[in-house]
Fold this protein.
Amino acid sequence: MKFTIACLPGDGIGPEVSESVVRVLNAIAEKFSHQFEMSDYLIGGCAIDATGNPLPEETINACKSADAVFLGAIGGPKWDDPNNKVRPEQGLLKLRSELNVFSNIRPLTVFPTLLDASPLKPELLKNVDFIVVRELTGGIYFGAKHKGKDFATDECRYSVREVERITKVACELAMQRDKRLTSVDKANVLETSRLWRDVVTGYVAENYPEIQLEHQLVDSCAMKLIQEPAHFDVILTENMFGDILSDEASVLAGSMGLLASSSLGDGCGLFEPIHGSAPDIAGQGIANPYASILSAAMMLRWLKLSNEADAVEQAVQQAIADGVLTRDLNSDSQVSTVDATNAVVELI
Ligand code: NAD
């Protein structure tokens, strides 16, 4: 089969891990006789430098007409001044909004051979396997913003429809798993959270009565993720809470460099590692490519290429079990981004 993939390498380590994805997809194309037409487009800081716009029209059009989009990462110190009118993250937020990818799905599995890579005690990490479902196109990140001389405001807004559609995504995932759903909010303080809690409760009771639903406040959830991470199956939460909790959860796995994500809506899928552009290691060839490669596996599964997705996931698992670990997972390691990618490509 033939697929068009828009690649958005972005900034920092983005181009390094994006190159790994291209090589892995080419290996899959060869093994399974597919054709992946992959072209690079600008987003983020590099797009600002080249065009003055963090998300040029050409990129939007290419993403909308592609079967799927892979994004490396955006941002870096060069463009980080919060007072700049044009900033890289505006490109990412606009892309999510243009593609209407309202659900961000972030699976968290702890690889058995990496128990020691996490700062948590290994016994806490046994049986940790959950998914964070984060609402991606609403809430405080997208609300009206105002910065005056003496004060600033960010509006947080959620509609019933926005909460219902993300709840449906989380319920569908829970039904394929252990049928346990934890909805996270701050209903003791925020009106948007009280609406969120009411809508989730009603929607689950009406449409998915077999799901065991619990509600947790975001502060206690942040604590429980560290105290008892194996408690969770599917975590459903709003945009900002999901952003923070999924970064916290990445520590359980041992490195940001392991966590993949997909962002889905009604149309095109966007697949990206959860990490940023890691400016501290950019250009050194030592970035961990596994999060990006696993994001490509999520892309393949979404394109209904399950055997191909299995092949990628198994190759990454085997490479990790074989000890092919970049420096974020083993401080003595000399394994480069290219070495880790070679291992996965050879295993495929
Ligand atoms: P970061 O995720 O880039 O880095 C955090 C830490 O994790 C760093 O020490 C980094 O070296 C390490 N790390 C991250 N990915 C790694 C990988 N694949 N292999 C090895 N180590 C890895 O977060 P940050 O430092 O807070 O942000 C850096 C820049 O990235 C900022 O400009 C920020 O705005 C941007 N950012 C972009 C995205 C995105 O593109 N989706 C997400 C988060 C942050």
